[in-house]
Amino acid sequence: MASANTSGSEENFSCSICLDVYNSPVSTPCGHNFCKTCITKTWDEKVQFKCPLCNKAFKRKPDLRINTLLSELAAQFQTSKRVKYQLCVKPGEVPCDVCTGTQLKAVKSCLVCFISYCQTHLEPHQRFPVLKTHRLVEPMDRLGDRMCKKHDRLLELFCQTEQVCVCLFCRVKDHRSHPVVRLTEEYEVKMAQLGKIEAEVQQMIQERLNNIQEIKETVNRSKADADREIADGVHVLTALKRCIEKCQDDLNQMVKEKLKSTEKQAEDLIKELEQEIEDLTNRRSEVKQLSHTEDHLHFLQAFRSLKDPPPTRDWTTVEVRPPSYVGTFRRSLDQLEETLNMEMKKLRDDELKRVQQYEVDVTLDPDAAHPELILSEDGKQVHDGGVAKALPDNPKRFTKKILVLTRQSFSSGRFYFEVQVKDKTAWWLGVARESIDRKDRIIVTPENGYLALFSYKDWLLFRDDPSVRLPLRAELQKVGVFVDYDEGLVSFYDVEARVHIYSATGCSFTEPLYPILCPCSWDYEGDNSAPMIISPVNQTD
């Protein structure tokens, strides 16, 4: 009965009362089948005994017995149904090699048959004595790949010398002089290595995630810098625009007031002149009228009573002088320049504050210092001692130029430091490439790896080819140096005056940069013994 066909549909094995697979099926005299419990309960609730399907009535309650064949078929169908819905192979599981159509999940693999079996097809290995001797293991995929191609045996060992899987015959013949371990042992070793590899990969992933975050933060900072730069520019230009408009209004008002005063003076003089003309016109009329009198007596009497001429001004000394506008426009421009200078000072203050945010803590490297130089214990001060010390040979040390580098170098980003140069008659400082020649008297230029600001008593310049002469700042006491490695920018600032001195732009850096200081000879142009001091940034200066 185990081989009976159970491929029918579920309705062939279902009770018409409970609509489920038969449970202890019984047959009525009319030939219909029901679960014993279902039909018994139905008849217990009614007076007549009828078939629920055909309504055939029975005089008395039929004696119901289990339908053995149907019961076995229903049980097999139930098992098949359960296997179908519960044991079907899923992704990652090993399928049964015997199943046709829908493959079920394998529960064991046979290392003799090289076949994987589901629970149903495994049954012969559990029943027949010959098959019981076969070696069954947990389900394995691709059993053929687990067999030695040369000896047709299971690959269950690992050769540590050649790093390959081998069978027992391989160990005896081809690998007898090699260290061979069981697969499980090597598996543990490789799993530990895999864990390390996974950790390394995870670290690499995290590093790249950090790089992404850094890039995003850089973009955000750049956006903030751009917004701030635009805002500062708008502020200055708006103030300048207001100042220009005010200057224009003041100029217009000043010129108009002068013109108005001139017009008022001219108007008053014209009125006075018109009054005199009127008086003179009246006198002329009297004179003309008298001139036509022929009566001698009347003429003489009237002439005697003729009024004296009205008082008049000596107009030969009177003039209307046009107003002078000389200097009016210049004074407006002076006011505009004053306002612009105030805004520029604010901008310079803001610029210096921004670069000071990139302050780095650097100390001088005694291994790189020229033998004449004397460094403080904290590595923050340096001056020329005038006498070369006997020092061991060091490839980092300068031997021809009185120079010293810092211990710290920079290969990316931005950095800023300040150096006090007060009371010195000569000095130079800046940054230098790591590969600069430290043993010969190389000309200090960007081409040779130096970007430096020079001061020699009465002149200041940036060394280049040609050098750039800069306005002398007699009160220059502290110099700030700002470097944007990625942008190729090196800028110098007068810290006390909060003024930008010079910027070298368009540089291309491909190696580490070191801050570099040169205090020059102690007796250059007099007493030059004052030290150069790397100072902490004080933004309240």
Walk me through the structure.
The chain is of the alpha+beta class and about 550 residues long. Among the domains are: about 10-85, 2-Layer Sandwich (Herpes Virus-1), CATH 3.30.40; about 185-315; about 375-535, Jelly Rolls (Sandwich), CATH 2.60.120.920. Helix content is about 35%, strand content about 15%. It contains eight helices and 23 strands. The chain has a seven-stranded antiparallel sheet, with helices on one face. A hairpin with a 4-residue loop joins β20 and β21. α6 (about 185-290) runs antiparallel to α8. The longest helix is centred in the middle third of the chain and has 109 residues, at about 185-290. It is elongated and about 185 Å long. About 20% of the residues are buried. Residues about 1-5 have low confidence and may be disordered.
Task: Give a topology summary.
Layout: E1 25-27, E2 33-35, H1 36-44, E3 49-50, E4 57-58, H2 68-86, E5 108-110, E6 115-117, H3 123-127, H4 129-132, E7 136-137, E8 157-159, E9 164-166, H5 168-173, E10 180-182, H6 183-291, H7 296-305, H8 328-356, E11 373-375, E12 381-384, E13 404-405, E14 414-420, E15 426-433, E16 450-456, E17 459-462, E18 468-470, E19 478-484, E20 489-494, E21 499-504, E22 513-518, E23 532-535
Antiparallel strand pairs: 1-2, 3-4, 5-6, 5-7, 8-9, 8-10, 11-12, 12-23, 13-22, 14-19, 14-23, 15-16, 15-22, 16-17, 17-18, 19-20, 20-21
Helix pairs in contact: 6-8
